[in-house]
Amino acid sequence: xxxxAKVDEVSELVYAKQRLARVRWVLAVPEDSAIxxxxxxxxxxxxxxxxxxxxxxxxxxxxxxxxxxxWGATEVKVPQLADAIVEVTETGSSLRANDCASSIPCWSxxxxxx
Length: 114
Prior knowledge:
The protein has a five-stranded mixed beta sheet with strand order 3-2-4-1-5. Strand 2, helix 1 (51-60) and strand 3 form a beta-alpha-beta unit. With 114 residues, it is of the alpha/beta class. It has helices at residues 51-60, 93-97, and strands spanning 24-30, 45-48, 66-69, 84-89, 100-107. The protein contains two helices and five strands; from the N terminus they run ββαββαβ. Helices cover 13% and strands 25% of the residues. It has one domain: 3-Layer(aba) Sandwich (D-Maltodextrin-Binding Protein, domain 2), CATH 3.40.190.
């Protein structure tokens, strides 16, 4: 999905570390941020490991933002290095520990390219 390659889904694999539940891709912001919708990201910086998927998501919402690749520990980048992040989460505990709130509806891995 990230590279834009055409793929055929053979099987759905559930990935999780803590429990047998799907992980979620979330668009997270600092808890005290005024950002509450995708459109509020206009002109902002978003850090993520899935740059192309995030750019596609923002484009579908008519938002122009700078999307930067994050080399891990993405949740610690807000608010000093980014206004928002797109991150995969299972329980949300790492996001909460870094004062992030998943306040913007995002997408499921199965719909990330739609």
